[in-house]
Amino acid sequence: MADRGCLLEAAPLPPEVRESLAELELELSEGDITQKGYEKKRAKLLARYIPLLQGVDPCLQAENRLSGPSLTTAALKPQKSRPTNSRDERFRSDVHTEAVQAALAKYKERKMPMPSKRRSVLVHSSVDTYTPPDTSSASEDEGSLRRPGRLTSTPFQSHPGVEPWLDRVIQGSSTSSSASSTSSHPGGRPNAAPTAAAALAGLAAHAHIADVHSAPPDVTTGIVHHSHYERPQVASVRGVPRGYSGSVLETADGVPVSSRVSSKIQQLLNTLKRPKRPPLKEFFVDDFEELLEVQQPDPNQPKPEGSQMVVLKGEPLAVGTPWPPSLLAALQRWGTTQPKAPCLTALDTTGKPVYTLTYGKLWSRSLKLAYTLLNKLTSKSEPLLTPGDRVALVFPNSDPVMFMVAFYGCLLAELVPVPIEVPLTRKDAGSQQVGFLLGSCGVALALTTDACQKGLPKAQTGEVATFKGWPPLAWLVIDGKHLAKPPKDWHPLAQDIRAGTAYIEYKTSKEGSTVGITVSHASLLAQCRALTQACGYSEAETLTNVLDFKRDAGLWHGVLTSVMNRMHVVSIPYALMKVNPLSWIQKVCSYKGSISSCDAFLNVFQSRGLRPEAICPCACSPEGLTVAIRRPPDLGGPPPRKAVLSMNGLSYGVIRVDTEEKLSVLTVQDVGQVMPGASVCVVKIEGTPYLCKTDEVGEICVNSSATGTAYYGLLGITKNVFETVPVTAGGTPVSERPFTRTGLLGFIGPDNLIFVVGKLDGLMVVGMRRHNADDVVATALAVEPMKFVYRGRIAVFSVTVLHDDRIVLVAEQRPDASEEDSFQWMSRVLQAIDSIHQVGVYCLALVPANTLPKAPLGGIHVSETKQRFLEGTLHPCNVLMCPHTCVTNLPKPRQKQPEVGPASMVVGNLVAGKRIAQASGRELAHLEDSDQARKFLFLADVLQWRAHTTPDHALFLLLNAKGTVTSTATCVQLHKRAERVAAALIEKGRLDAGDHVALVYPPGVDLIAAFYGCLYCGCVPVTVRPPHPQNLGTTLPTVKMIVEVSKSACVLTTQAITRLLKSKEAAAAVDIRTWPTILDTDDIPKKKATSIFRPPSPDVLAYLDFSVSTTGILAGVKMSHSATSALCRSIKLQCELYPSRQIAICLDPYCGLGFALWCLCSVYSGHQSVLVPPLELESNVSLWLSAVSQYKARVTFCSYSVMEMCTKGLGSQTGALRMKGVNLSCVRTCMVVAEERPRIALTQSFSKLFKDLGLPARAVSTTFGCRVNVAICLQPNRLGKLAEQGTAGPDPTTVYVDMRALRHDRVRLVERGSPHSLPLMESGKILPGVKVIIAHTETKGPLGDSHLGEIWVSSPHNATGYYTVYGEEALHADHFSARLSFGDTQTVWARTGYLGFLRRTELTDASGERHDALYVVGSLDETLELRGMRYHPIDIETSVIRAHRSIAECAVFTWTNLLVVVVELDGLEQDALDLVALVTNVVLEEHYLVVGVVVIVDPGVIPINSRGEKQRMHLRDGFLADQLDPIYVAYNM
To answer: Are 406 and 832 in contact, with CB atoms under 8 Å apart?
Structure first.
């Protein structure tokens, strides 16, 4: 503590000031002064001692606020202690505040990164007390609270030398709403003289986006502009402002680190560098299995050394005392002989006596009730109750009188009362479980009072509503007027039934299930006798009861034993206790009673005349009833004892009286001696009930006639608990009679006194050591008690994560505690618990005041709290997770073994005993006439030939959002338009053959015509997605960049886009003076080109294909004429395309296979393409499927984002579509074009959903292409014209692989549904002419079948290389010209950059060969190397999305070896923090990884490119530059 108050120590405070501070502190804790008043007065007192305070850093002020009270807490303790925890089962002399403060003082203040929270979420902290960690994000702007789907942007001023993150949030795919807000840095000033490049980088600067509901932006090529650097994997450019002088610290990946986010991560890393306890043993196993670390016992742990204990017997039950034969006999006797004697006085909430029940009244009313129950309930429908039936007693805590009448009425009628709490709402904590208990007990009738019945929730009919999980009940009101008077000659049957059940008491277990404990008449009588003897009760004595009279000690003393002895009970309701804690003591004084419930408040009241020996603690449990009680001194018991036990010893179940280390000790008081007539022993908690040694903690077991007899209806666990036979070490039973386990943990101390150290329900076993929830609560409370949280509102429980218990602490935060204070308090609680219990807390959560589920008497309903925590419905306002420090049983990190050398590997075509993993499509030579292939070598020639031979054959139909054809192109029309474009390029553009031309067109026939126009004049076309008019700031720089990087000499476009490129808005985003010539092709003259260019050789460049990879890298590849025609030829053969065919395409036409299908294939094969621009689906989701149905397309292509739009948008409309006549039974193949692992879940739900519209079950399949080869696999038509001869390939196969093996680059097939199984779908059939092999990523050697490696491809349509502005092809030469290091070292391959494996299936293809299936697992650039293993982000993301229904999307990336998980919250902001623990849990459980940072953002923040792939690197850059405007960022410790 000392180092916290550094400022205070500089000037030691005079004693009188300390005294005034102490008084203030007391006033605050007693609630006599507000927090604000307290701070004012305190500041005044300290002002002259801390002159520095005014100019201090705000965070120090927060610390000072913490450090003051701690100086005084110790002194105040005695006066503050209040007897409010009379319901606390632990009896400690004093909460160990001093120990905790001392422990904290040992810690140097650890700086932990504070979570950042968006302002709108700070519901609980008043604005003036909140000091943001640093004001650099738009989230501090009140006005910029961003709603999903809303474009807001603030003018951008960048910090000098840091460039703004250009592409901030690359907007979601065409589906996701674009939500972006640029961060504004108050205090930064714009760079003085920006260079052109800096201006280009600062383009987001003045983008003021006016239109709120704008269409989504363009995303193909969102690039991030960063300082000049290259990624080694791909020669590519990520926006390269030239002339940039970087004074910014950069990471290895070239991301500027200047943000508060990365400084927090640095802080987190520093915190994590501290050694873990216990240290991990470093040895590595390179095996399939990642074995979880099994905790080995600590060789130095204390072991019990005592002798074996002996069974402890209590004094015998007194003989010769005239006990009544039964409780009912006693009631009858007092009711008839002493009718005026007071039995029970009930107080109201103000403390006034409301009613005194006399023994005469109790007897007559109980009789009346018994008579009514047995005789007057019969209406036609209701059966008579028969003796032994169970009846629910539903009475409020303020009405003991009616309860007592009901209880005895049931006993007289031989019915079994089941007292339960009043259900206030339909969804009370634990109410469902109580319903389950009532149902299993067969309860059909509930007794209650008039007032209570009126207050219960009602159904429409006016009847009491049926509560969730409850059986149907009849409700009987037992107020006098509803009861019938029994005839004179009627007598109740019940006189003395020893064996039967008297009543059932409910108990809620640790897991939240509710069980009923049956207590027999015999036990009831024995319990009353034993209590009378132990407490020395005498006739007509007064007893004050502050406990719950419906159960436990409150029932045994205040309702049962009292009647046996004709005592007078004063019942004090809990509500009065809350308002006036002293009420019961005042009543004790006014009624001169003896106290039967106790606590350690002696030191407060000793001065008022309380005798220390008057305090008699007792121990009881629902199963064992009263287990032990300290005898009043006049009955001659031994003096009370205290034990100071070592916490460390207790955690190993061993009793060690602590001598040296004074900090981590537990002080316990004895709970007295064994009950009269009972025997007690202590047995081991787990396994066989062996007797413990004398210095060992175990479960206390009782053998007595006064215990519970069974769990109602549960025979199995009844045997374990109520019929335990303790045995000695040799295995001999200690007694013929069975014992009852009490659920209490303890030991037998000196003088045969019993000590209880905890309850089995509160036991948490963490890494082989036991901790008690109550002890952890006490430690938390001792840290600045009552300042930030409410004293009685702390719950501690354990959850199982990764096969071990993890401790969770949940507390209610005071509304006046600021964010910083609470975080400070949380980190100190962690340190205190770590220091005193030597155990880490896995999760610490603060919830708003009054939101935790309450137990009946106002405590916390722990099992319900745990349930809410695990379901994600706790809604905390502050969370601190510490998985790094707690989880020490992770598998060993893997160390890569040196690879086996070539000599031992390849034998023929086997690698290490397996077939080499290679496969190929059909041979091209067999398939077609080579003469035709020569004729179709240049696409320009093909178009001219078609225009000549089939001039009016329509090649393209373009549809708009309404589904009408807006333009068509026949062969001759396309040819003529291409000629006009070529003429314009030569004359207006003055271009030469070989010049590059950027085509910036919306999807349509103009784009295709411009492409062929370029080929006609020998120019090289580059297709570019046009900028988005509503989002120029983000999309225009991308266009500019591709134009510059591709060295385009001219831009061809439409009139509208020309205007846009030169507009004022464009000037704000880029330098519009540097555009090359812009030609608008809307009104070019009808001129024919003089001659059509014919390339000198097929290897000449035909076009450039630019695209952004998922890692955010812009890569352009070169396609030669021979590769272009080979590509078209393979697709034609695979899909059996010919002029009479029609296919529907719903893809973007700018890159990859989408471009090839849109612009190239129809011209080559002559089939008709129905073009559906994906953008049009935004306004009409069913457009694509309606078109497929209307044109009866047998083959159709789409992207995952289109498929997702249809699945989400048309889920409920299949019926309506069927009515409109949409019929998909014509579809033979629907191919999803992708450069990623097939998304099985999506394709399956799509197939399932549209099965109703006739879509064949096996129609959907996937394709695979990448930068080096845009079409490697395509699933062919299953029914071509050669289907009879079996040309159609087999169906795509799905296999299940072990995810753990995959992390080690191995493929192991498992059964569907087995743990850790991951389904993978084949990526389509390999195209004709394509060869594939799987190679090792590092050694470049060939791999065997079913090994995971990089997919290498060799084919005539491979691209010929990357096209980059710097021409550094050498760096990436091996991407296009790789050779194996051994085996077949001649073939030249292209490296795809994707991991996958080949597997020979049982299926055969057309040639009768067995079919080789290619499975793509994921991109190599995307994989995360963590703990020596390789993880695929998509696997972690899939787990996270399953964790909670509010998680809409998720993306993960790593930053300095920390795993960062970003989740989009589709729900209320106050639910955001629920996700932190669930995300951390699921990643630990399923992937054995510890999450470092959890970032919660709005929907639509995770950037997605046009193919529907997540741009994780852009997201990472945005996070580090603090530009995501997250709702919450949690840094896991």
So the answer is: no
